[in-house]
Structure formats: C-alpha cells, structure tokens
Design goal:
The protein contains twelve helices and twelve strands. By secondary structure, the chain is of the alpha/beta class.
C-alpha cells in the first residue's frame, strides 16, 4: 500500500482510507463479523486511516469501529472523527464541540483522535446548518486548539463544503491541518478549471490552496455516493439515495452522466466505472488519502484492487476530460 505524506502533519497515510460512513452502510448497519473481517483485511493490506463521525448512524459507526479496533489492537493506525454543531448550539460552540468529542472518544474507546473535522458547511455569512468563516476562525478554531492542548486531538480539520470563497479563506488561514475535499470524475474542480457552464459546484482549484497552506487532503465523494458505479441499484444495507454534493442536483442525473463515461471501460482504460473513479481520485498529487464507502467486504476488496493498479494514465485522463466536455451547458 502506497503511503503519502499528509500535508504538514508529518503523518504518512495510506492512499486508500477506510470510510465508515452511512452511505455505504457497512459500519452502521452491517454484520458485526463482516465489519471485523473487513477492517482486519484492510489493516493487513496496509490501510492505516479510518474515518468516522457521530452523525453516521447516530454514533453506531463510532461504536462499531471502536469495538473492532479494541479487539484487533492494530499498531500505528490513525482515526478521524467529526463534529457537526447544530444551529441550536451556535451560541455556545465551545461547549457543543467539547461535548461532541467526549461522546465520540467514549464510543471509540480512545483517549485521543488523530484528526477532528468540523462537519458543518462553511459559508461567508452562515445560515441554516452552515457556520460563517468568521465563526469557524474565531470560535471553532480556539475550541479545537484547547482540545489539542488537552491531548484529545492531534490535528484540526474541516469538511470542505459550503461557499468556495469561504473555504479558500478558512484554508488560507493555515490553522487547519486537514480538509475533506469533494473530488471525483464528475467534478474535478478542486484540481482545475471546469468547462464553461458546467453542471457542478466549482471548487475553484481548492487543491492550490491546500498545497500552499500545507493542508492534507482527504478525498471524499470519490464515487459520488455510488453514482459512479453507473447503476441505480443500492445494496440493502446501504443508505438511502443521498443528497448530491458538488455535482448534479439529483442523484439520477449523476448516474446518467456517469454512464456517459463508460467509454473509459469500453476502450480498456479500466475494468469498471468504480475502478476508474477510484484510480482517478489517486491521480492528483495533492490527494493524501481517499475514502471509498462500502456495504460489503467485497466492495472493499474491489477498492483495494483498483488502488493497486495505481492512478489512471495520462491518456485516460485526457479521454475523461473530452467526455466531460459533453456535460457543459446542461442543467445542474
């Protein structure tokens, strides 16, 4: 398993991380034996980053990950979890952050997590579930720093959702060590310019900002929550069709566009769309580790096999870019 230096943290993380989210569902609704078997397989294969959140199954993901790690007792693995401050708690962010982390540590059976990510969207002025950039910098960061001084977290992170300008501002402040960034074959805008009138959120070359600030990148929505399988079929334990993030405004539109990328498979660049999507996410040097959600142990094995093939070659990336040109001008 290839390791990549994760920003300025000094950590070396496996290029394939283990996503414990609710969309795939294995670590929320899966069989306990399958959970243990898959995590053991991942550790043996060299995976050393495990990503969870209290929101995944209302703590079930954290409990299940904690149970398995306590049993297996692997050496040198990093665990990340998240806090989403509810709007009702925006007036007491420090207390909400501290309480959330204490609950997460108890469920995980840990004294400390390696990365603690803010899970709220970040926008210029806040509103709804989003925090403003100023709230993040003036209130969330000091709260996180106090927890770091207490030895309860090692590194500070954000989930880079929200307004592009606000995300660039917060990352450019150089106070966070990690950013979870949307990056997939339907929306590569964190790396480069999109075609004119392209139907996706433009993240405005966010990788330039993370690289300049020494921020490690965790790739999320690598498979567009499953749409990049090209199939609408969902495993029985997978989460319901998720709210799209960063790409089309409907999951079915993402599936439709994913199917229009099938020439990558038909022309021999990859054995499947999911393989192509997984390898695409590894192709940018700013990427530290990618998260691929899973419902079954086999889906983890498929992701591992794809990663072992390495990044997509330049010819495949050029073909993909040409195919995406056909999306320009379509309704998001």
């Amino acid at each position: 398993m290839q390791l990549r230096v994760f920003g300025r943290t000094g950590m070396q993380l496996s290029v394939l991380g283990f996503g414990c989210g609710a969309v795939g569902g294995l670590m929320v609704r899966g069989d306990a034996a399958d959970q243990e078997r898959t995590i053991a397989r991942a550790i043996t294969a060299g995976v050393n980053y495990f990503d969870t959140a209290v929101q995944y199954g209302d703590g079930e993901s954290e409990k299940n990950l904690g149970r398995v790690l306590q049993k297996l007792k692997p050496a040198n693995v990093a665990v990340g979890t998240k806090v989403r401050v509810p709007p009702s708690e925006f007036g007491r962010i420090d207390e909400a952050v501290r309480t959330s982390l204490e609950g997460s540590l108890a469920r995980l059976g840990l004294d400390r997590v390696d990365i603690f990510h803010l899970h709220n969207p970040i926008t210029e002025n806040g509103g709804g579930s989003a925090l403003s950039a100023r709230q993040v910098l003036d209130e969330v960061v000091p709260s996180f720093e106090r927890l770091r001084q207490q030895g309860k977290i090692r590194f500070l992170g954000i989930t880079a959702l929200g307004d592009n300008a606000a995300l660039h501002q917060v990352i450019g402040a150089r106070v966070f060590d990690s950013a979870q960034v949307v990056y997939n074959m339907l929306n590569p805008s964190a790396a480069g310019a999109l075609p004119a009138r392209y139907p996706a959120q433009d993240y405005g070359r966010l990788f330039d900002a993370t690289e300049a600030a020494g921020v490690g990148v965790v790739g999320i929505r690598v498979l567009a929550a499953g749409a990049l399988s090209g199939s609408a079929e969902r495993h029985p334990i997978a989460g319901p069709v998720p709210e799209p993030i960063g790409s089309a405004m409907s999951y079915n539109a993402d599936i439709d566009r994913a199917r229009r990328l099938m020439p990558l498979v038909e022309e021999g660049f990859a054995a499947s769309l999911t393989e192509a999507a997984t390898r695409f996410a590894l192709s940018h040097p700013a990427m530290g580790t990618i998260l691929v959600g899973m419902a079954t142990p086999q889906q983890f094995d498929d992701a591992l096999a794809a990663v072992k093939k390495g990044p997509l070659p330049p010819a495949a990336l050029d073909r993909l870019s040409a195919l995406r040109q056909g999306f320009a001008g379509e309704a998001r």
